[in-house]
Amino acid sequence: MSIERKPIAYGDMRGWLSALDKAGELQTIGAEVDWNIELGTVSRLAQGPGTGKALLFNKIRDYGENARCRQVFTGALSSYRRVAMMMGMAPDTHPRELVKLGRTILTGAIPPKIVATGPVKENIVKGDDIDLNDFPTPQWNRADGGRYILTYGGVVTRDHDTGVMNVGVYRGMVSGKNMIPILMWRAQHIGQHATTWQQAGKKEMPIAVAIGWEPSLDFVGGAPVPKGMCEYDVAGAIRGEPVELVKCETVDLHVPASAEIVIEGFLSFDPSTFLPEGPYAEFTGYIAGDQSPKPAIRVTCITHRTNPILRGTIEGTMPGSYSENSVTSSVMRAAAAWNVLDRAGVPGVTDVWCPPVQAGVNTVVQVKQSYRGVAKQVANALWGSSAAHVRYKHVTVVDDDIDIHDYAAVDWAIAFRVNAGEDDIVIMPATFGAGLDPSVRKRDRNVAQFGTGKWNRVLIDATINLDYDPDPDLGGARFPPTVRPAQKDIDAVLARWDELGLKK
Length: 504
What we know:
Oligomer: single chain
Shape: globular
Radius of gyration: 24 Å
Strand content: 15-25%
């Protein structure tokens, strides 16, 4: 499988901003906007259903000319056009092609290059001079527990035993001048790294956060990069050039040399040091959880460019408003599912899609049936994979005459090819699942107690049922023909379309 693309290295976030501006994909906001709720509200309303522009806020209340940081950038990947640009493809590339490319893009590797210094070292802040409040961190939502400075930064950690670094995206809230409590799950790469440090007898783990760089870093940080691979290598492959890294000042980690802001520190494992974090408007589109003690980053250094730009994002998708996470996840979770099905030997898979409004929780698979039961094979393969931890809760399988990117087509298949009494609806009870899903009883969402959430998963088999006997009245077919005209009749009418005065 080969998808033609031209890798693009934008250089840094400022190069990315310039490219977006030239492509008409950037909206610069010069009017003053309040960091407290207003900026987040503007971002949520402006992003639309994958149609809004990226936003650069140039004037933020309380952060005037003498402030350390005065700008906030958001919404860069909340559009398939901009995801295509990041991947080195034409902006009008169909999401189907992005999924096909996504099947291989996370397996490429160009190792990073270590350099002596870079723009991120222009300003180095340590000791009593550290103050996270110097940055215009938004209170993104009124119901959030505080100001979230970590929403789309690359959180860098290292496996104690192997030394392999990982770059992930995790939420983190400002607490005082130098503390950032974060949401960390043990099943995530950051949690796995924390376990290796604890098993080695360490009381804390070095950690760094790179905020504001090329879009590939944000993208791979939130994508299912295979275990054992470093996101820096994958980002290099996406951009076609090595990521230039510099060593941190106070921890043994490396970060992009041209990042806007880097926050260094240590993550403690001692529950007595945990700080209140949450609630937060999460990817489900609901406010998630109560405020509770979480592990916190003790900030030991902040380095940043002169006049840095804070990169952040509004989380949580709802109908008509697609977040950056939901748009990128719809591509990468569909690609990951397709690869799972291939590895499991499921035949006839012709397309896979995760609609953005569910960020991969709902999945639609298109198949060309060669024998009965393929839909159940699809569901079992997906649900039995590690990729299903917080994805693929509901799986719908359709035939290859149904365009899975057209909700009306899928809905039609569900309406007239599903008969629940014919085993077309299958429930898989009590599997692992997302701890943030409010449809699950609160007790069963306790990740601290159970290690995961609890999902009852559903398969909707909307394929033509091959258990039905061939009908002699239908020429041996199992289903009647549709009302769509014959192709020769369509061609004859289209030849007269303009003459009839109709618009195509």
